[in-house]
Amino acid sequence: MTQRTPALTDRLILRGGTVVDGTGAPPADLDVVVAGGVIVALRSPGGATESPGARVVDCTGWVVAPGFIDIHAHSDLTRLRYPDAATRVLQGVTTEVIGNCGLTPAPAPARGHDAFRAVIGTIDIAPGVDFSWTSTADFLDALDAVPGATNLVPLIGHGSIRYAVMGASAASIVSASMRGLSRESLTKSEEKPERSAWRPKATSSRGSSASPH
Ligand SMILES: [Zn+2]
Known about the structure:
Elements: E1 11-19, E2 28-35, E3 38-43, E4 55-58, E5 63-64, E6 68-70, H1 78-81, H2 86-89, E7 93-98, H3 113-121, H4 136-144, E8 151-154, H5 158-166, H6 176-190
Parallel strand pairs: 1-4, 1-5, 6-7, 7-8
Antiparallel strand pairs: 1-2, 2-3
The structure holds zinc ion.
């Protein structure tokens, strides 16, 4: 991957931006000094010393904020194809929770691997990425082998575990007690219209136009 940014050991000064630090504190115009990949100082605008070799970015008129966390990402495979994660970073996202919607590239079945990859490809679109792993450990090793621009928080998909155990079988493995509790929860929420804004829906988010994919 082409190195586009300074090494983490470099000194970086974000000069004069409006800092919104995420704590609820009022915005403040500050210089932010970064060294070794961490914020080491906050100074009043113009107050940070430009040591030799420091990279200075004029942030006047811009907001400087901690990276955003995308809690619903499907970058499991695209991360391997596009490790610079430009579509995330350009939005300010620095951490992604991957493996959402119950489908993850691992665990994968040893038999029927092609069919499984086709299923995963419906939600984790990654042109040019093929894989043969079956275990989550091997998938995580593949991610580790391609250092990327964002932090990853991987989930393990229930759907993938189910597929690995029983393929595409429609047989139910959900216990009667779980099913009953789910039905009860949905029924009770329907009886309280004042909570309609957040009551659980019985439909799949994949079919919703408001889906955050
Ligand atoms: Zn999703």
